[in-house]
Structures are given as structure tokens and as C-alpha cells.
Amino acid sequence: MLDCTPKEITKRSGGLINPAKTCQPLGAMYASLGIHGCLPHSHGSQGCSAYHRAHLTRHFREPVMASTSSFTEGASVFGGASNLKTAINNVFTIYNPDVMAVHTTCLSETIGDDVATIVKTAEVPEGKVIIHANTPSYQGSHVSGFSNMTRAMVHYLAEADEENKKSQINIIPGFVNPGDMREIKRLADLMGLSSIMFPDTSGVMDAPLTGHFDMYPRGGTTVKQLRDTGNSSLTLALGSYASADAAHLLEKKCRVPALVLRTPIGVKATDEFIMAMRQHSIKEVPYELELERGQLVDIMTDVHYHFHGKKVAIFGDPDIVIALTEFMLSLGMKPIHALTGTPDSTIGGPQGSFEREVKGMLEQADLQGQVKAGADLFTLHQWIKNEPVDLLIGTTYGKYIARAEDVPLVRVGFPILDRAVHSYLPIAGYKGAMRLLEMIDNALLERIERDCTDEDLELVM
Amino acid sequence: MKNMAMKELDNEIIKERSKSIRTKGRQSQPIQCEADSVAGCVSQRACVYCGARVVLNPITDAVHLVHGPIGCASYTWDIRGSLSSGSDLYRYSFSTDLREEDIIFGGEKKLARCIDELVERYHPGLLLVYATCIVGVIGDDLGAVCKAASLRHKIDIIPVESAGFSGNKSDGYRAACDVLLRMIASEEAVPKKDNCLNYLGDFNLAGEAWIIKSYLNEIGIHVNVAITGDSTYDTLLEAPSASLNIVQCAGSMGYMGKRMEQIYGMPCMNISFLGLEDTMDSLRRISSFFDNYFISSRAEALIKREYELYAPVVESCRARLQDKKAAIFVGGGFKAISLIKQFRELGMEVVMVGTQTGREEEYDTIHQMVTDGTVVLDDANPSELETFMLEQGADLLVGGVKERPLAFKLGIAFIDHNHERKHPLSGFIGAANFAQEVYATVCSPVWRYLNLDGI
Ligand code: SF4
Ligand code: SF4
Question: CA of A93: how far to CAs of B7, B40, B45, B384, in Å?
Fold first, then answer.
């Protein structure tokens, strides 16, 4: 059997087995793709960017373009400055993007290339911009990479150039799928707010098939919009790990108040998102939204007995796991294991609150559970062996545990490499919550039907 | 954006690239290849670590420990569909997950600790430690750590010199072969086995090595070990006892075959089990090497039976695929050559051939095989692929993971001839699978819905 995980938990002193995270540059690349007309650039060896592109392509099933500084032996000894200069020149002449978004890799960070200075002194064609983020993977995870690149958008581009703030708001969606970004924008529209979402990969990473290949598809936040974020009157940062840093910088730089919320997954977090917008909008919550919410709660009550008391293990990116835990609790489920690969604290980076937040929620619900940040799936598997669950929610990598322990897996988060469509349809908002409910409910019921005897097979469930 | 690649060719700075693109019948000088990618290009190439990892990964009972930050390990976690008949240890992802403090103070201690814990937990015969880019830069002495650990645990713990920047994927293949050579080297002379060969350069994707093994078994030839598909530490150690090496993927294992010829005097034969024609030809060449009437006659019987079984499948696809146009973009030159032949078997015309790391001799062969007007290119970037596929009117692209969505966006059919293939493509049955896969994608009804007004 595909199971090399012993049940007995012994002390480990470093290293990871079956990681629940990946490296910063991937997140930075994904965030960059949410800028319209942007070519992400990986400052390092070509191997890293080949991996990052392939990995994103496997999840989104879309082409992912990114250039690389193509480090060779020489660059690793003498530094990569000249590679980057050549690269900047070549990128603008050949690929002609509006924005070149440079991120570093472990290698260029370790060598100590001063990317900020190179970028500052580079000759950039009229009307074009370069931004950069430092993304060494020996800190944080792909989520911090996303956060750092989002922060770089603010650092390089946001401007408060109007006397008064506009009524528009900024929304930072966090490391979620384009389908979620679309849904979040729709909610803001329904609330009658004009909003700038950044980064925004909808229309880029879910671009339609047209018969020709657009290196820069229609979607993405434009440079003009990114500049204008400094004139907005509020920033809603959805998910503290992926979005808070950029919002705080925008507050500091352009005095745009920042409000950090949970990723709007599930009824409560979506309520909070809507209420935050309502405070800002002159409009009341429209009937359309009330309807959606009412339908969601209707479904929750209709089938709550399918969920009640079921034990569930949740893993993935911190913002997503926090929100999912809250949603599962609201259904009467017992999230007894919650784990993220992203570490709670990194030197010089933000101090996360994953463990505190999730433990707090469990305590409030009077539940005992295992909660850990910076952990791996080997650990999660051991937890499950010692305390079994009825359901596993997480990324594709959960399939090994699901098979070994014979637990149904509902695929949510990044990456999902073995199923399609997930990136197009939301799990955020009320509609997204309905979709999640359907996925989870089906998984639980199908499992009952698979396992039950003939006489127990029921027509109506 | 349409003419990005052409624009690129006009550009002074990137004139360099134009040396890597040839159209048969137009330019006469040889193609430039085996060069480093240009800084600032969107290259489809992978790194040394990637090359080493794909070659060694199919050793099923080894612990594959990646010494580096997490990314390099996480991207290679079980992405290659090499099947195992025994251990599943190779499908776990082990990484030292270097953190800030390790970068500052060095990662040797952490590596040693990780090795100790893994050996204690899994008791492997072999533990491979892969070097990634930053290992050399922070000054870790991988060799010393592995050697000490090896003595401590009395098992083979071998460093793989695979720092990504020190070349490209081919250099990784070579690093992997060096590891294997070092591993199988032994003081004592190994007794030879009868009618016995090693099968190099098959990674048992979708169970391909099993198919070839069953053929050879049937005709009375014993496959000592496939390197590295579904291999184990113990079976690999037996490698010197065979009397012949056959090499499927010459790009990755040609070097190993040559070295074994030098060291063990073991002859080496390049074969190919891709396509009906190559498969028949290879089986005949292998059996004539053993010069044994029983082997040859059984080989002929097998060829007859399998051909009669699968040729009609290929034939039926051929009828529908005749004159369709194929574009090829794969890792190595040798595979490209096999594919050109296979498309010929299907009656299809090859209009573009590219590789990531093809070598000069291979490009010469390709150039000879293709018809006038075919574009041949080395280390292509996506916009070049786009331009030439459209220009040449390709109906199908063969490639790897990064090329798939590109082809689809252009409304061009696609098949994966890389890690993500879903059916075995080797041998007679593989030729039939290949034909059916090509048929299924080229003739799928989905292409009819590209436009609102129905074409
Ligand atoms: S070297 Fe660093 S950036 Fe590159 S793949 Fe590995 S972890 Fe990621
Ligand atoms: S760090 Fe080096 S070894 Fe790792 S993926 Fe990047 S290029 Fe390859």
C-alpha cells in the first residue's frame, strides 16, 4: 500500500516529509500574473522558473509565461547583476510587457544580488515599469511570496495624487482562484461599490479559448488602477497572511485605511465582508444578496444532520484553512486537525496567527484538536492515524492520506493537480459556500452509499 | 502579439536566437544547440537537478532527500508516473527544508540529522542526497556529510551533484549516471549471467519497462535490470553481470552505456521501442546479438503475433489521420527522431521539430529525415512555438506540461510524451496506444466549437 507513514509519532529535528507548502517565488509569480500586461521574471537559474510555471500550469491548466535571468556557474560566483540587466533589456525588446515583475530566488538571495538598486537604475522604455519583490524560499512559503509581490505593487506604484480620497475601495483577495476573485468583485458590485481588486488573475488564469494565444490576456489589474489604489478610501485585505502586508503599507504610504478580514469563505466570513462594505456604501444590502444568503442558510438547515458531529481534518494555506475551519464549525462539524505548511513566523517577516486563531475557534466550540503551522503532511497523516476523521479537506496532496486511511477527500485550495474546473468556480461568497456544501455533502453521502449494505441503501437521504 | 517570434528574429540583441532555428531547404549552416539560454528569455528548459532527479527517481526503495529550500523538493514530489512493483518510498518527498539560519550557519548539521532520522525510520539500502543551487553557495560539503553518514549507518549514502545552475537538464542526466556508476562499481569481478541484458533509459512510465521486459522474457532473454524504471538498490548492483546494454533514451542514458562499455567491456546498443517499425527492428537486432536460433525464432513469432494484433489499430487510425500535420517539441533529440518515424507510420507530416536539449548529431539526423519546409529549432520559447505552429498549420503538438495549454489555446490538439503520459507508449501495444491517443485528440469533436458561428 502507498503508505510509508508509521503511526507512532517520534521526535523529528528538522526537514520536511511531504510538504504542505511550496516556495515564495511561485506565489510571487502568481500575484504578478494578476497585473494586466505583466511578465513575471525569475531572477535565478532557469530551473526554478521552469518548475514554477509548470506547477501553476498544472493547477490552472493555462499557459504561464515568465522569463528568467538564466544563471550559470559564472553568475553564481560573480553575482547576477549583469544577467538581470541583460534580461531587462531583452524582456522589453522582445516581449514588450507593460510591467516586468522581478522576484528573486534562493540563489540570487544567497549570493546577495541587490535587485532593488539594479531595478532602480535600469533603463526602462517610456511608459513601462519594473517592480520587484524579495522572495527567498528559506523564509515563509508561496503565500508569503504572494504577499510580498502584492506589497511590491503598492511600494512601486500606489500614489495618493488626488486631494480627496475617492469613494472607491481596494480589495486584496489573497491567494485564491480567479473564480473566487470574480465572485468577490461581483459582491462588491452588488453592494454598489466601485472597487479596484489587486492582484486580479481573473481573465488571465481563466482566459477563454479563442484560437490564438495572448501572451497578455485581457484580465488583470492595470498599472493605472494600481496607481489609483492610493486614492481609494479603504482597503479590504482578505486573509491576513496573503493580503495584510500590502494593505498596511498602503495605509502608511497613502493613508488609505486598511481593514483585514478573513477570506470570505463560509457564511460568517462572507457576512463580515458584506458588512464591511455596507459601512462604506450608501446602499443597503440589495435583495439579490439577501436572497443568496437566505438560500445558503436554507441549505445549511436542510441538511445539517449530514454534517453534525463529523470529524474533519483541514490543511492548506493559512488564510483558507482558518476560514474553512470557521465554516465547518458553523455546520456542527468537528475540525479536529488543522494544519498549514506556511510557518507562523519568519525572521523579519510578519508574525502569523494561524495557531492562535484556529485554537481560539476550537476552544469556543469546546473542541479539542491538533493545530499546527509550518508542519508537513507526514505529521497530518500521523495525527489521522492516531485520531481518525470522517473527511479530509485540502489540496491534491491529500490523496495519499485519503487512500491509505480510506477517508473521502474534498479538494480545496492550491494546488489541485488532478481535477479540473475548480479554478473557474468560486468557493468564496454565499454562492461559493453553496458549492462547498454540495462538494462536502456529496463526498460524505457517496461514502455512506459505497459502504452500506443492500438493505441500508436508501432512496431518500 | 501574433508575430512575437518573428519580431524576435528581427531584433539585433536576440539575433543569437535565430542561430537556433532552421528551416529545411532554406538555411544550410548547422543549428546552434547545447548553448545556454539567453537571459530574459521565456525558456522551456529545466535545470540540472531536474535532470538528475528524473533519472534517479524511479529507484523505488531509495530515500530521495533533497538538500535545499522546500521548492525544489515540492515540485518533484511524485510528478513522474514511474510505476513500482514493490516499494513506494520513492513517492514520498523528503527535504531538508533549509531555513534562514541554515543559510547563515550552513546546512551540514541539519542534513546529517535528517539522514540519521530517515535511516532509522526506513532502513533503506540507498539514500540519495540531491544538491540544489544554494548548497554550493553556502559551502556545505555534501560529500563529507554523506561519507560520514555512510560509515555511521553502513549503507550507501550518495551525493548527487545537481546544483541547478551548473548546466542544464542534460548535465543532470550525466550527474545521475555518475551516481549509478559509482554505486555499481565493485572490487570483485561479477560473474556473467547467460542471455542477459540491462535495459537502460526506460523509467517505467505507465509501466512501459514491464512491457519490454515481457517481450524479452518471452523470447528467452533475461532483463537483468531496467535502469532505472522500477529498479531497486539490490537489482541495480547486479548491473555489471549482464552481457549487453540496450539503451532506449539515449539522451539520458547514452553516457551510462558508453561508460559501462569502457569499464566493463559491455557492448552497448541504441534501440527504440517507440512505434511498430522501431520495435520490430530493435527486437531483431537484440536477438541477433545473442546469435541463438531459439531466441531469433521466438522473436519472429512474437513479432508476427503482436504485429497482427496491433498493426490494424494503427492502420485504422492512419486512415483518419492521413496528411494531418504534427509539431514536435520534446526534451531530447533521440525521442524527436523516434516520433518523426511514428508520425510517418500514421501517415502524418511533421512540420516542426524542436527539442530542449538535443545534440548536434541528433539535429543532423532530424534535418535529414524531415521534408523541405520543416522548421527545426533548439530551446524554443513559447512565442516561437506559437508562430511556427500557426505558420506551418500544425494540427497536433507533442510536448510536455508547459506546452499543453499553449497548444489548446491555439485550438491545436496535444499529446503528452513526457511524465504525464497516461498510457504506455512503448512496444506494439504502445504504438497502438499512441495512434489512438493521436486520433482521440486530433479528431475530437471539441475543436468544432471554437467559434460561436461554427467555424
Ligand atoms: S531554489 Fe528556491 S526558488 Fe528555486 S525552486 Fe528551489 S526553493 Fe524554489
Ligand atoms: S534552485 Fe537550482 S536546483 Fe532547485 S529548481 Fe532552481 S535551478 Fe533547479
Answer: 9, 10, 21, 15
Is residue B143 domain-shared with residue B269, that is, in the same domain? no
Phi, psi for residue A266 in degrees, rounded to 5: 95, 170
3-state helix, strand, coil in chain B (%, to 5): 50, 15, 35
Is the Cβ pair B70, A21 closer than 8 Å? yes
User: Both B291 and B398 in a single domain?
Assistant: no
Question: What pLDDT, in 10s, does the model give residues A249-306?
Answer: 999 999 999 999 999 999 999 999 999 999 998 889 999 999 999 999 999 999 999 9
Name the DSSP class of A346: -
- Cα(B99) to centroid of ligand 1, in Å? 12
Q: A5: closest CA among A261, A448, A382?
A: A382
Strands (E), A34-89: 38-43, 67-68
In the structure grid, which three cell numbers stand for residue A79, read together? 553575482
Tell me what pLDDT residue B8 has: 45
Owning domain of residue B120: 48-184
Sign of CA dihedral B63, B66, B70, B75: negative
Residue to substitute from B4, B8, B36, B41, interface A, most A β-carbons within 10 A? B41
Ligand nearest to the CA of A135: 1
Query: B297 and B263: one domain?
Result: yes
pLDDT of residue B355: 86
- For A211, the closest of B14, B402, B410 (CB atoms) is B410
B72 and B148 housed in the same domain: yes
Residue B212 to residue A400: CA distance in whole angstroms: 29
Category of B23 on φ-ψ map: left (φ > 0), alpha (ψ -120 to 50) or beta:
beta
- Rg of chain B (C-alpha set): 23
Query: How far is Cα A95 from Cα B16, in angstroms, rounded to an integer?
Result: 16
B74, B110, B166 member nearest A15 (Cβ): B110
Which residues make beta-bridge pairs with A17? B94
Is A411:A272 a contact under the CB 8 Å cutoff?
A: no
Residue in chain B lying closest to A138 (CA): B99
Our count of domains for chain B comes to 3
Closest chain B C-alpha to A74 CA, distance in angstroms: 9
Residue indicated by cell numbers 507526514? A378
pLDDT in tens, A147-201: 999 999 999 999 999 999 999 999 999 999 999 999 999 999 999 999 999 999 9
Distances (CA, A) of B325 to A88, B416, B435: 37, 16, 14
For chain A, how far is it from start to end, CA to CA, in angstroms?
33
Q: Which of B150, B184, B218 is the last residue of a domain?
A: B184
Residue B155 resides in a domain? yes
Tell me the pTM. 0.94
Segment B321-331 shows an average pLDDT of 93
> What was the pLDDT predicted at B25?
66
Domains of chain A: 24-157 (3.40.50.1980), 169-206+219-284 (3.40.50.1980), 289-460 (3.40.50.1980)
Instruction: Please identify, among B303, B320, B336, the residue that sits at the C-terminal boundary of a domain.
Output: B303
Please calculate the CA angle A283-A285-A290 and round it to the nearest 5 degrees.
160
Residues B224 and B154 in one domain: no
Predicted ipTM > 0.90: yes
pLDDT tens digits for B32-83?
665 666 788 887 778 899 999 999 999 999 999 999 999 999 999 987 789 9
Q: With an 8 Å Cβ cutoff, are B40 and A25 in contact?
A: no
Verify that B9 and B67 share a domain, yes or no. Answer: no
Mean pLDDT of A52-74: 92
Q: Count of CB atoms within 10 A of residue B418's CB?
A: 20
User: Using CA atoms, how far apart are residues B1 and B415, in angstroms rounded to an integer?
Assistant: 25
Contacts of B49 in chain A (CB under 8 A): 47
Same domain, B23 and B52: no
